[in-house]
Amino acid sequence: MKNFSRLTLYHKILLLALSMLALLGILLGLLLWNSLYDLTGQQLDQRGMEVTRHIASLSADHVLTDSRYSLHELISETRKNNTDVSYVVVQDAKQGVLAHTFSQGVPRGLMQANPGIGSSVSIVRLNTSEGMVRDILAPIEQGEVGYVRVGLLEDPMRGQIAAHLRNLILATLAVCLLAALLAANLASRIASPITQLALSADQISRGQLNVQVPARSHDEVGLLAKAFGQMAQSLSRTNVERDRLLTELARKERLRKVLLNKVLSAQEDERKRISRELHDETGQALTSLLVSMRMLADRTTDAQQREILLGARDLAANTLRDIRDLAVELRPPVLDDLGLLPAVRKYLTQFEQRHGILVSFTAIDGRVHGPTAMALYRILQEGLTNIIRHADAQSVEITIDIRENHIELIISDDGKGFIVKSLDHTRKDNRLGLYGMRERAALLGGTLTISSAPQKGTVITVVVPNPREE
Predict the structure, then answer these.
(1) Do 262 and 371 contact (CB within 8 A), yes or no?
(2) What sequence ranges are listed for the domain HAMP (predicted)?
(3) 107 secondary structure, DSSP code
(4) Cβ distance 87 to 101 under 8 Å?
(5) Does residue 193 fall inside a structural domain?
(6) In what order do the strands lie in the sheet with 122-128?
(7) For residues 233 and 353, what is the distance between their CA atoms, to the nearest angstrom?
């Protein structure tokens, strides 16, 4: 059965057709053999009775006149004229032998093999040295005068049957051969379109959607081929439309990145401008105000007024310090002057002092400037802001690994963590801090991954290409 399943459809159909033809031929041969065998047996019995009765009718007078010479002439002539007659024996009413055609006497036991009863014809099949013989015993004058026993050979008639059967078998084989050729042609007509469909399906699976599937007939296979061709054309049109949409989507994605880069660049430029104005103009104005208030406090003689002026001066000094911190946070000058690592160290020192969270910083020395440094600095700022807002952490570990081909930033905390899949809900709630970090990394051609679980803390890993200076 396994070997049958490995055959092609053509060979399966052909094998089934040949098997059915062979089975039909065998059954037909057996049926014909049995039918001819039975018919031949009936014909032999009929012929034997005719010969025996003919001899009985001719030998009655010879038996009554006891003319044994005439009886011998009669049975000898009968045996000579009928080649299928093996022997003839004439008996009297008491089963005594009056004449026979045996050259060496009547074989022992022949009379007992078919003793005969009354006036009816008795037929017994005997196995002799000449083959199967039908021993036919017929009475003469109802058995009152005697009996005639004739041995009729079966082989001549069987030989004729075998010859006819051989001719029939040859004719059957010829018909089976013709039927096999027709079955092979039919199998080819059925299997060829299906094989073509299989080849076309294989070509389509490899992306060759312009394949043509010919429909050579109007039967079910032809309808299947037509439907298959229509499906291939539909897939081709769908792929063309898909490619067009993908091209348009890629174009819009490139445009989105360009616009996002411009937005972030404009944002950084605006932060730089505001930082400079806060540091220069607002800072200088507050410094002048502090000097003026100090001078007024030194000149006044009223202790109450002096206390008020000194309190206002301290408030202005605190405001000046906060403005300067804000200006640095908006655009740290050290980031432009010294690069990423010094800016991060300074920011982490201020972060630890301001929020009371233990910060561990590990970095491999290297210089990172430009957009990459700014993006990583902003990602770090946003990550630490999220820790303050949501993590309830006691310590933070920051690692910056500057390699030849890439830069890796790792932000790890021991906070309460969260289920990463819940980020979809935070996005719906417009809490876009993590998504902004991911967008910044993607704009640099990098990735941002998040690993977290409830009460297990959070690890944010950012990997971006290292823009090595030529």
Answers:
(1) no
(2) 188-240
(3) P
(4) yes
(5) no
(6) 97-100, 85-92, 146-153, 131-140, 122-128
(7) 68
370-386 vs 340-355: helix axis angle to the nearest 10? 20
Strand 458-465 to strand 97-100: parallel, antiparallel, or no bridges (unpaired)? unpaired
> Which helix (H) or strand (E) segment is 184 a member of?
helix 155-205
pLDDT tens digits, 268-307? 666 666 766 665 666 677 677 777 777 777 777 777 877 7
Average of pLDDT values for 156-176? 75
Residue 66's φ and ψ, nearest 5 degrees, are 55, 40
Mark whether 215 and 126 lie in a shared domain: no
Q: Which of 324, 333, 313, 312 is nearest to 283 (CA)?
A: 324
Gap between the Cα atoms of 441 and 463, Å rounded: 8
188 within some domain: no
Tokens of 216: 């050579």
pTM of the model: 0.47
Q: Which residue has the tokens 């018919």?
A: 39
Tens digit of pLDDT for each residue in 349-369?
888 888 889 999 998 767 888
- Could you tell me the residue range of the domain that residue 417 belongs to? 339-470
SS3 400: strand
pLDDT tens digits, 434-451: 778 888 888 888 999 999
Q: Which of 257-261, 406-410, 453-457 has the lowest mean pLDDT?
A: 257-261
Neighbours of 387 (CB within 10 A): 23
What is residue 88's three-state secondary structure?
Answer: strand
Q: What is the reported pLDDT for 206?
A: 73
122-126, 210-214, 318-322, 393-397: least confidently modelled range: 210-214
What residues contact residue 125 under an 8 Å CB cut-off, 6+ apart? 132, 133, 134, 135, 154
Residues 71/99, Cβ–Cβ less than 8 Å? yes
Q: Which amino acid is at 6?
A: R
Residues 415 and 269 in one domain: no
Assess if residue 200 is contained within a domain: no
Give yes or no: residues 457 and 324 share one domain: no
Q: What is the pLDDT of residue 18?
A: 73
Least confident of 2-16, 26-40, 128-142, 398-412: 2-16
User: What is the domain-level CATH number for residue 22?
Assistant: 3.30.450.20
Domain endpoint, select from 157, 177, 197: 177
